[in-house]
Amino acid sequence: MAGGMKSLAKDTAIYGLSSILGKFIGWCLVPIYTRVLTTGEFGVMTNVYAYTALLAVILTYGMETGFFRFMNKGDDEPMKVYSTTLLSIALTSILFVVFCFTFLNPIADFLDYAHHPDYIAIMAVVVGIDTIMTIPFAYLRYKKRPIRFATLRLSSIFITIVFTIFFLIICPKIHAVNPSLIAWFYSPSYKEGYVFVANLIGSAITFIFLIPELRGFKYVIDTDLLKRMLKYCFPLLILGIAGMLNQTVDKIIYPFLFDDKVEAFRQLGIYSACSRVAIIMMMFTQAFRFAYEPFIFAKNKDANNDKAYTEAMKYFIIFSLIIFLGVMFYMDIIKHFIGKDFYEGLNVVSIVMMGYILFGIYFNLSFWYKMVDKTYFGAVFSIAGCVITIVLNIIFVPIYGYIASAWATLICNLIMMLLSYYFERKYRPLPYDFKSIGLYFGLAIVLYGVSCYARFDTEALRLIFNTVLFAIFFFVLIKRDLPLSEIPVIGKIVKRK
């Protein structure tokens, strides 16, 4: 058992690290995007990728999870499950691509891309390829090959990044010196289009790398098995769509909320770029999830598991607030992460980050319905959040602009968190340390408020003052919940003294 848990922890670390590292590497492209692309062009890119994220969920229709469920169930031959799942996903993905190409112009007109239907065509192919690849990647996880899984995932990201840099930075420099050298494939005005082209190249090359996982077995579709899988996966599809809409719907509907489409994409570009500054909080939440989920399910067997849950919640909130204060106190430095044209939207960063914290708390709270086998609550909460996000964006974005989207996301996450907590009290109440949680939340808000209202003649003085405020938070933390003697390395030094 110990060996199995050790292997699980190792594999989880590799899968989790590759996912987080991939997001981090992609995040590092934002400084390039926001300096090469205009606010409107970045808005177009954001809008297209929001559609692709939603389509990826729809086109996988829960079959990745269904694949693991039926592969491990033992009632069906594993390779028949793999073949059936792969062919099902491949067939629907190919039909999707054919549909997009057949009705390309009407789709482009509806989505306000009549001037660039090629964007729709390129990303339709990318979504089709990426969706098909989810099953070979799932098969690698089933076969316990985390190294190959992570290598291929990261290779795809690196290839995309290399070609993005080539098209957005290197090609313009070559064109400025010797246009004829690259005129056969490069157009300076295409800009954001090359981001999609780079993505297509990355996906296509990764698909080629996955060919070994597509050979060595008989391709068959077991119709009875497929029916059972689809029945199992349908609720997951609904949950997945609701969850993804919560993340992307504001970016999808922007062109429909403004009469002036240029202004719509400009505001979306600013909002999206500044939200990327806050994405470090989402990466922390995801990292915490990879560590937390196996820990919690293991602790569920222990007699004192309630304390483990509540302690995990408290320290998640504490470290989330540290990240929040760190970003906000040093915004004068961090703002250089994006281009100057996007600075006007930096006021959304604090709202978006707090929204991520609330979502992290909601995620931690969600374990109660998993533990009592009432997972349908997750779908209910996600759908409620989705409806709230859509309604708030439709009503307030045309009036207040992108700041309304930030508040809509925060309110959505707050309501989902409160709903989950309310029902947790009915089914599996836990003794959370509200005194400490309230203290740290209150302290963080007060310190941030003081920082906002303090005025200084120079940036250096403001940073020094904010560092003092940051130190106050750490002082309270060390005195109450994180003694120096318990911190690795530092604890050894303290004990020696």
TrEMBL record:
Q: Topology in the membrane? A: Multi-pass membrane protein
Q: Where in the cell is it found?
A: Cell membrane
The alphabetical list of record keywords is: Cell membrane, Membrane, Transmembrane, Transmembrane helix
Query: A Pfam family this protein belongs to?
Result: Polysacc_synt
Transmembrane regions listed in the UniProt entry: 12-33, 48-70, 82-107, 119-140, 152-170, 193-211, 232-249, 269-292, 312-331, 351-369, 376-396, 402-422, 434-454, 460-478
Any GO CC annotation of this UniProt entry: plasma membrane
- Presence of keyword Glycoprotein: no
Principal localization reads: membrane
Which source organism? Answer: Dysgonomonas alginatilytica
Domain of life, per lineage:
Bacteria
> What is the name of the protein in this document?
O-antigen/teichoic acid export membrane protein
Q: What taxonomic classification does the UniProt entry list for its organism? A: Bacteria, Pseudomonadati, Bacteroidota, Bacteroidia, Bacteroidales
